[in-house]
Amino acid sequence: MTKVTSQEIAQFRSQLADDKSDMEALDLIEDCDGDLEDAAMTLAIRAGQQPERANSEWLDALARKWRVVICEQEYREDLLNSSPQKMMEHLKAMPTFPKILATPVLIYVLKQGVNNFCEPLDSLK
């Protein structure tokens, strides 16, 4: 389980305050006592997806599916500085990305550590 603290939720609220769907996702994470995977699963079901894995495996798989996009160099520096706004906009502009899941996916990546998350791609370069 990936746990998001109330301080981290407050920090994301201040960074993402302009987007109603981000605020809803953060509210749900808070309602789930900071359990990121549980909140992401609930959001996925709301978005019409039918996850068929355990919560922790499902969120990890979704994030890895989008790793190439998330680890693009032009956004990576922002993520390393815990500034997800540009990447959030980028993901939400992609027609195939489930927009409501952008918040939990990016929080997951930040909690894993951006360099750790992107390392498999870096080793291919």
How many helices? The count is 9
Overall, the morphology is globular
Radius of gyration equals 13 Å
- Number of beta strands: 0
- Rounded mean pLDDT score: 90
Distance between the termini: 31 Å
- Poorly predicted ranges: none
- Report helical residue fraction: 55-70%
The major pleated sheet works out as: none
What fraction of the residues are assigned to beta strands by DSSP?
Answer: under 5%
Helix- and strand-based class? mainly alpha
- The SSE string, one letter per element, is HHHHHHHHH
Task: Describe it.
The relative contact order is 0.17. By secondary structure, the chain is an all-alpha fold. It starts with 5 loop residues before the first helix and ends with a helix. Helix 3 crosses helix 4 (55-65) and helix 3 packs antiparallel against helix 8 (102-112). It is built from 9 helices and no strands. The mean pLDDT is 90. The radius of gyration is 13 Å and the shape is globular.
